[in-house]
Prior knowledge:
By secondary structure, this protein is α/β, with parallel strands linked by helices. The chain is built from seven helices and 13 strands. It has helices spanning about 110-120, 140-145, 165-175, 180-190, 210-220, 240-250, 265, and strands spanning about 15-20, 45, 55-60, 70-80, 80-90, 100-105, 125-130, 135, 150-155, 225-230, 255-260, 275-280, 280-285. The chain has a six-stranded mixed beta sheet. Strand 12 and strand 13 form a beta hairpin. Helix 3 packs across helix 4 and helix 5 (about 210-220) packs parallel to helix 6. The chain starts with 15 loop residues before the first strand and ends with a strand.
Amino acid sequence: MGSNGSSSGLATGTRYRPVPAPLAARHTGPYVTDRDSISYVELYCLVEMPSRGGVAVRSSIVMAEMPPVLAAGVGARHGWGWVLRAASFRTGAPLSGRTVTGIAAPHPAAAGAVVDLLSGATAPAYGELRVLGEDLTTPAGRAAVRQRIGVARRSTGLQRAFRLRGAVEHAARLAGLAAADREMLTAGILDRLALTPWARVPLRAAPPAVERRARLAAAAVHEPDLLLLDRLLDDLRPRDAADVAAAVRDLGRDTAIITTGAEPDLLWLACDEVLTLADGVIVPN
């Protein structure tokens, strides 16, 4: 497809999967179909006239520089219904330029479901989804992306009976780091997030901002390519939220980060861009 949107010059051997014509409107936003706005990515939707067969979505992705997440017509279910309905979006800049992206999702279950999807814990029901260039529509792609990310959730994932340093070391062990690397990287992330003075404090006794930063440290200790944060800024006092946001921004200098949250204003404390999940689609805030 040329930059003017015509269908000339398509690469040979490219596979196309038909999409129902009523979804055409879902595939016309600049996040996916306007190639000029994502010129460094070779994923886009081929929108044809209804008389020529409706809509087709390119299912083979070739990229020069892939943003952390790129989705075309993605549908995703949660227990209570659909979280995404033919959603097309991207997050952040190419990985050569780190970006912290927020996704505002007022319902906590929806926020958690988006993190599950992007982390490879669940599969999309339909559509095309790439995270770190991995194809999350395949088991192999989901397994590959799980090795390259870190996930921090507001209320799960850490043993609160652990002392703070022990919790981060345990996360490093689960990530498969060797003993010598665990000690060095744990010390480094605790120092970077100003957690060293709290290293011997049990998580359950730590102040809220410290406990949230500890969750961030545990997710980042193995130096992942992408951090997924689930509502770490929610339900904190303003000063504590600013403290956690500063830690997120600091890690965002060298790691791509996507964080969910209920309030766009809180997300802007930490993020370079904020998207909103509403009615099954993700759009710019």
